[in-house]
Design brief:
- The chain is an alpha/beta fold.
- It contains 11 helices and 10 strands.
- It has 2 domains: 238 residues, TIM Barrel (Alpha-Beta Barrel); 49 residues, no CATH class.
- The longest helix is centred in the last third of the chain and has 23 residues.
- The model has no long low-confidence stretch (mean pLDDT 93).
């Protein structure tokens, strides 16, 4: 999941370009991008799109951002789109792991009713859009086997806490509350065995700023980033695909410990490498395998 592109679920023109966008994941949005009066039409359009796109040999994964569990819309969202067989659901504004569990149970029933394989539909939770969620981050660990990814959001959190801005004067650096939310998302995702996914960069005309923020996210351990415009996808795919020199070093580390299974430390390129470096190398190779799978599918 290097790149996850938001598309309004009722915008047939934009949906039509989704498969060729290059994104690893399309986030078909039934929440903020769709007015209440359009929800029913959006569900129908979204379900038709999923049905038509599932059979495409090389396609992105299809996730649907439903409405939050404290709204009257989310149950109808599931009823309208689960039978089409999306790859996953994005859960906005959860209050903690209990909301992920509630969604997971609802998906159990919906899959059974639609004749889908159990646990086919995965979950990505946007874990920082409500202040209470930040106080409940540990509850995401073990909340559901469906939890595939954890990401964070700044805009709704800004509104919730009354922040006049979530960026410093340079327009690129997060202010303290939002650095906390980002860091908590990263740590919680790893603890939960889910993919840590960075939030959107809203200035889609600032390619340099996007690249810089994506590079920082990749450096820190995020494996991908959400996008609001197709022009952002190519940069994200490039940044979050491990580089050949990184992979070469990772392969050397893995090979060295494989050849010396009882060693706690090995010497490589004049440096002492321990088991923490081995774990990092294995994670990097896993990311590369996932990126290769996404390229094959896309």
């Amino acid at each position: 999941m290097r790149s996850l592109l938001f598309i309004p679920a009722d915008d047939e023109k934009k949906l039509g370009k989704g498969v060729t966008s290059g994104a690893d994941v399309l986030l078909l949005d039934l929440e903020d991008a769709v007015a209440p009066s359009r929800k029913a039409d959006a569900r129908r359009i979204c379900a038709d799109y999923i049905t038509a796109t599932r059979g495409v040999a090389k396609r992105p994964r299809l996730f649907v951002r439903i409405n939050a569990l404290d709204t009257p819309y989310w149950a109808d969202d599931l009823a309208g789109i689960v039978a089409a067989g999306p790859d996953g659901i994005m859960l906005p504004k959860p209050r903690g792991g209990a909301d992920v569990h509630t969604l997971s149970v609802a998906l159990d029933h919906a899959e059974q009713g639609a004749g889908l394989a159990a646990s086919h539909i995965k979950i990505i939770a946007i874990a920082t859009e409500t202040p209470i969620s930040l106080l409940n981050m540990a509850t995401y660990v073990g909340a559901s086997a469906r939890l595939d990814g954890l990401t964070w959001g700044a805009e709704d959190l800004s509104a919730a806490i009354g922040a006049r801005s979530n960026r410093e004067a340079d327009g690129r650096t997060w202010t303290s509350p939002f650095r906390l939310a980002r860091d908590m998302c990263l740590m919680t995702a790893v603890a939960a065995g889910a993919l840590p996914i960075d939030t959107v960069f809203v200035n889609f005309r600032d390619a340099e700023g996007l690249r810089a923020e994506a590079e920082q996210a990749s450096r820190d351990g995020f494996v991908g980033k959400m996008a609001i415009h197709p022009n952002q996808v190519e940069i994200l795919n490039e940044v979050f695909t491990p580089k050949p020199d990184e992979l070469a070093m990772a392969q050397e580390i893995i090979a060295a410990f494989r050849d010396n299974p009882n060693a706690g430390v090995v010497g490589i390129r004049g440096k002492m490498i321990d088991k923490a470096h081995l774990a990092l190398a294995e994670r990097l190779m896993g990311r590369a395998a996932l990126a290769n799978a996404n390229r094959s599918a896309g």
